[in-house]
Design the sequence.
C-alpha cells in the first residue's frame, strides 16, 4: 500500500514490519520458525528431517551466498545488502522446511486455511495504512479504493483449477480490477504470461517448453520493452526513466565483470556509472546504509527495479541456466501439474529475484506442503 515505505522505513507500510529492538514482527515470526525447525532436528537426531525440494536448490544457494561474500570482500564491501539477502534465504528455508515440523492433518496444512490467513493479513495491512496514514500512495485510475491481493494474480490464474470456479474467478476478477486501477504493469504482464503458459501446457508439449517461455518473458521481454517501448512512459514516466538508467548501469557493470557469464552473488551491489534520477529517491531508499541520503549518494546501488536486471546481475548466465534445470528437475521429480505447477512458478519467480520476503516464504511453504502430499502418495502406493 505504501511501497516506498518498505525501502525508506518511514511511515506505515505493513503491520508486520513494525520493529522492536531492530527486528520487525515478520522477522521475529521467521526466527521463531527457524528455532522450531532447529529444535526438531536436534531433539530427533535419528529422524531425518524432510527438506523436500531444498536438497536441489541448496547447492546453488550456498554458491550464491559464497559468491556474494567474495564480492563484498574483494570488490565493494557493503554489509547491509548482503545481510538482507541472507535474511531472504532464512525466509525461504523457514517456509520450505516448516511443513516437516507440523502435525499431520494440522489446519495450517490446509490450503483454504492458508489462503484465508493471507486474505486477513492483506486486509489488515490495507486498514492499517488507511487508519494511520489516511491514504495510500498507489495510483487510482478508476477511482477505486485499494482492494486485497491474496497471491500474485499470475499464480491464481495458472492454478485456478485447484479452486471452485465460484471462489477462484471472483477473487481473480477483483485482483485484475485492482491491477488495472493501480496500474500494476508487472502484474498485468505476468497475468498475460500465465495465459501463455496455460496454452502451452494444454498443447501437451514437453515440460521444458513452458519453462523456456516463462524465462523468455521474464528475462528478455521486460528489458526490451523498457529499452525500446517508449509507449510505457505514457503510464509511468518516472519509473521507466529510472529503469532505463538501471539497465544502462547493468550493461556497464556486466561489461566490466565478465560480460554476464558469472553472477555477482547474493548481496552484491553494482557500480552506478549513470546516476539514479534524484527525484526517485524511493527507488533506492535505505538499501545501502541506514541513512536515506547517504544511500542515494553512494557510488554503488543494490536494488534493480526491473527484476530481470537483478536476476541477470546476481546469477549470471551460468547461474540462470543452473537454476532453470533445478526447477525443471523439481517439476519432474514431483510431477507437478495444475496448482502445484503454479506454485513451482511462484517459487521460481521468488528465486529469480531474491528480495520479496513474504512472497518467498509463502511460495516455499505452499510448495513444500504440496511436495509432501506427493511424497506421501508415493509412499502409500509403494506400501
Sequence:
Amino acid at each position: 500500500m505504501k511501497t516506498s515505505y518498505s525501502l525508506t522505513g518511514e511511515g506505515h507500510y505493513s503491520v508486520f514490519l513494525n520493529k522492536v529492538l531492530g527486528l520487525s514482527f515478520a522477522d521475529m515470526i521467521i526466527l521463531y520458525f527457524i528455532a522450531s525447525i532447529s529444535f526438531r532436528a536436534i531433539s530427533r537426531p535419528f529422524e531425518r528431517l524432510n527438506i523436500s525440494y531444498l536438497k536441489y536448490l541448496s547447492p546453488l544457494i550456498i554458491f550464491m551466498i559464497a559468491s556474494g561474500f567474495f564480492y563484498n570482500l574483494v570488490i565493494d564491501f557493503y554489509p547491509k545488502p548482503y545481510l538482507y539477502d541472507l535474511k531472504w534465504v532464512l525466509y525461504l528455508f523457514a517456509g520450505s522446511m516448516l511443513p516437516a515440523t507440523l502435525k499431520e492433518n494440522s489446519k495450517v496444512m490446509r490450503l483454504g486455511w492458508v489462503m484465508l490467513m493471507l486474505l486477513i493479513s492483506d486486509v489488515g495491512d490495507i486498514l492499517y495504512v488507511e487508519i494511520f496514514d489516511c491514504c495510500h500512495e498507489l495510483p487510482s485510475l478508476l477511482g477505486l479504493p485499494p482492494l486485497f491481493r491474496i497471491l500474485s494474480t499470475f499464480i491464481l490464474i495458472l492454478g485456478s483449477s485447484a479452486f471452485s470456479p465460484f471462489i477462484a474467478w471472483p477473487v481473480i476478477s477483483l485482483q485484475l480490477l485492482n491491477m488495472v486501477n493501480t496500474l500494476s504493469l508487472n502484474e498485468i504482464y505476468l497475468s498475460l504470461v500465465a495465459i501463455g503458459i496455460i496454452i502451452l501446457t494444454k498443447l501437451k508439449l514437453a515440460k521444458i517448453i513452458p519453462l523456456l517461455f516463462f524465462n523468455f518473458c521474464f528475462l528478455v521481454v521486460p528489458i526490451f520493452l523498457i529499452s525500446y517501448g517508449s509507449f510505457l512512459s505514457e503510464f509511468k514516466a518516472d519509473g521507466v526513466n529510472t529503469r532505463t538508467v538501471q539497465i544502462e548501469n547493468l550493461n556497464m557493470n556486466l561489461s566490466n565483470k565478465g560480460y554476464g557469464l558469472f553472477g555477482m552473488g547474493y548481496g552484491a551491489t553494482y557500480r552506478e556509472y549513470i546516476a539514479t534520477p534524484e527525484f526517485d529517491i524511493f527507488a533506492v531508499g535505505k538499501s545501502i546504509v541506514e541513512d536515506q541520503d547517504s544511500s542515494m549518494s553512494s557510488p554503488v546501488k543494490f536494488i534493480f527495479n526491473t527484476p530481470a536486471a537483478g536476476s541477470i546481475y546476481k546469477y549470471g548466465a551460468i547461474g540462470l541456466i543452473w537454476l532453470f534445470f533445478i526447477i525443471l528437475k523439481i517439476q519432474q521429480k514431483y510431477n507437478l501439474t495444475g496448482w502445484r505447477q503454479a506454485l513451482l512458478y511462484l517459487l521460481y519467480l521468488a528465486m529469480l529475484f531474491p528480495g520479496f520476503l513474504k512472497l518467498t516464504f509463502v511460495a516455499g511453504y505452499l510448495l513444500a506442503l504440496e511436495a509432501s502430499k506427493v511424497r506421501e502418495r508415493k509412499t502409500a502406493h509403494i506400501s
About this structure: Residues 307-334 form the longest helix (28 residues). The CA atoms of residues 278 and 296 lie 8 Å apart. The chain has a mean pLDDT of 86. DSSP finds 14 helices and four strands in the chain.
